[in-house]
Amino acid sequence: MTTPPDVVRSAYAQLVVTDLAKARWFWADMLGFHIQYEDQTQLCLRGTDELTHHSLVLRKGETAALDHISYRVRTSEDVDRAEEYFRALGRPVRRVPKGAGTPGVGDAVRVIDPLGFPVEFFHDIERAERHIQRYDLRRGAEIARLDHFNICTPDIPAAYAHYQALGFGCSETIEGDEHELYAAWMYRKQTVHDVAFTGGAGPRLHHVGVATHESHQVLRTADLFGSLRKEHHIERGPGRHGVSNAFYLYLRDPDGHRVEIYTSDYYTGDPDHETYRWNVHDDRRRDFWGNAVIESWYKEASPVLDLAGNPLPVTESVLDESAVQVGADGLGIVEPGKQPATEEG
User: Fold this and answer.
1) What is the phi/psi pair of residue 266, to 5°?
2) 236: which strand partners?
3) Could you tell me if 138 and 299 are in contact, meaning their C-beta atoms sit under 8 angstroms apart?
4) I need a surface site. Which of 36, 40, 304, 309 has the fewest CB within 10 A?
């Protein structure tokens, strides 16, 4: 049996956008990402705290989609392990030599994983100038760093099993009364998650999660879009999640890609960290204050591309969290006599 690569953290996402100028306005001017590299076909962006070349790449294309998500691995040998591991699983694999792929990234491997997602594994990446205390350069939402990916998949147990095999821990889940798995949050860095799974038609990208330092920066983001009469980019929030406890705001970029502005989750680094299990009937699971979760948040997501750049087919999901009648979802009411509950273990 082959050894999986040692994943360190979620590293960057590469999105296909149809208009680079509009994307630059949204991600750099409004959200405050720093531009590390720019040409006529792509932008490489990073947050204030990030010391590597980028955490987000925007590539111009005909149709908006996810090109790939990317994980940094611990050593260059882990890039080789990633190639061997996914070949042994019978998955499509492509080696991407330094200079042939994303600017700033060294030798990498791109695969279509067992869930149907385009995923890159790399170790080497160019360093970037330290902006942590360049307060004079901060603007917009003052994004600090990439935090996580959230992906839509019709088979949450399969997603859980795949990432568990890659060495990921699980911080929280949403489960049914018979412990049916509706969603899961999994991590390698010592926070709530590097990747989360939202049940639904997939493979699709639900959102990219980016972190700010404080909740007032989340509120400022909403105020900035409102002040420019661009409030239609705000999809959901501000609010506080039940899962993760994080303060959040969801936005849609000019192409419809979803981004979560995210702060104030918690540490998961203890070796005996326990999974916190939410019941799907608990109306605080998605918003701790019981605010409505609109239908577009459950149903809409970005398509993903295969290794040749073609859209991957989507499979519908059997288990539908949005169909569970919970008042906070705005899609029904709590069943009379039903007591929301959580459990640990």
Assistant:
1) -140, 170
2) 250
3) no
4) 40
Q: What is the pLDDT of residue 324?
A: 65
The 10s digit of each residue's pLDDT in 85-116 is 999 999 999 999 999 999 999 999 999 999 99
- Looking at residue 1, its pLDDT comes to 76
Mean pLDDT of 190-217: 96
Length of the chain, in residues: 345
**Two tokens, residue 108:** 């990498």
Closest alpha carbon to 195 in 248, 244, 137: 244
Query: How far is Cα 170 from Cα 162, in angstroms, rounded to an integer?
Result: 12
State the amino acid at position 28 in one-letter form.
Answer: A
Predicted confidence (pLDDT) per residue in 281-334, tens digit:
898 899 999 888 889 999 999 999 999 999 999 998 776 676 665 444 443 333
Q: Find tokens 């990432």 and name the residue.
A: 163
The dihedrals phi and psi of 163, each to the nearest 5 degrees, come to -75, -30
